[in-house]
Design brief:
Layout lengths: L4 E5 L4 H10 L4 E6 L2 H11 L2 E4 L5 H15 L4 E4 L14 H29 L2 E6 L12 H21 L4 E6 L7 H6 L11 H12 L21
Parallel strand pairs: 1-2, 1-4, 2-3, 4-5, 5-6
Helix pairs in contact: 1-7, 3-4, 4-5
């Protein structure tokens, strides 16, 4: 298979940017970001396409993926890296922050996967990689809302993968630990473990999964990597 088309949601910084950078070497990449200036800078640097998209808006997600389909036809892969940090005790979080975290991490994930899978099923192939978090594996003080919203994505991916079965569509996930990204800066040093992975290390694994062939004997839905630097 030659050049393919990949969508990278949250592709303007951190892990998403590294994934997009690796893919643009041989493939068509369309990045989604919620800040227009960052989308413009990324598309200029990587010489790829992209658009501003708030994933918590169903209309914006559908419009963005329609644009990808119009430009390139089939969508071969989605790297879903868009997420919102929501740290702090539940009682300390404003209703507005709670609402936004759920909109982005829950509804945004459902919107992206729904619209992507609809388009992939039209062509009978495609790979989806959801970027979760190690926080889903073990309760951790100070992040109840973030953990709950990321657990939604984990559960959704598992169910979707089961539904796809052995079709040409693979729905997968990885759960990175702390990385040197903008999200980690927002998290703060108290959540930075002694061992961490660099974004480019995790990006290589995501790209490997995105490039799997439809008939590769890889189990859709398998939690393929807990990327905490210990591999």
């Amino acid at each position: 298979m030659g050049a393919r088309t990949f969508v990278v949601a949250g592709g303007t910084s951190g892990l998403g940017l590294e994934i997009a950078r690796m893919l643009t070497v041989d493939h068509r990449v369309f990045v989604l970001g919620n800040v227009a200036d960052e989308v413009a800078a990324t598309t200029s640097e990587l010489e790829c396409a992209g658009t501003t998209c708030d994933v918590s808006s169903y209309d914006q997600v559908a419009h963005a993926l329609d644009e990808v389909s119009r430009r390139y036809g089939a969508i071969d892969g989605l790297a879903h890296c868009a997420t919102m940090w929501a740290g702090g005790a539940l009682e300390e979080m404003s209703p507005e922050m709670l609402h936004k975290a759920i909109d982005v991490n829950v509804l945004g994930t459902a919107y992206l996967l729904r619209e992507t899978l609809i388009r992939m099923r039209e062509h009978g192939r495609g790979n989806v990689v959801y970027i979760g978090a190690m926080a889903v594996d073990k309760p951790r003080p100070g992040i109840p809302v973030y953990r709950a919203t990321k657990n939604f994505g984990k559960s959704l991916v598992e169910s979707l993968a089961q539904a796809e079965g052995t079709s040409g569509i693979k729905v997968m996930q990885i759960h990175p630990g702390p990385m040197h990204t903008r999200l980690q800066e927002r998290v703060g040093a108290e959540f930075l473990d002694e061992v961490y992975a660099e974004p480019e290390q995790v990006a290589r694994e995501v790209v490997r999964l995105l490039l799997l062939e439809p008939d590769d004997l890889y189990v859709s839905g398998q939690e393929v990597l807990r990327a905490d630097g210990r591999w």
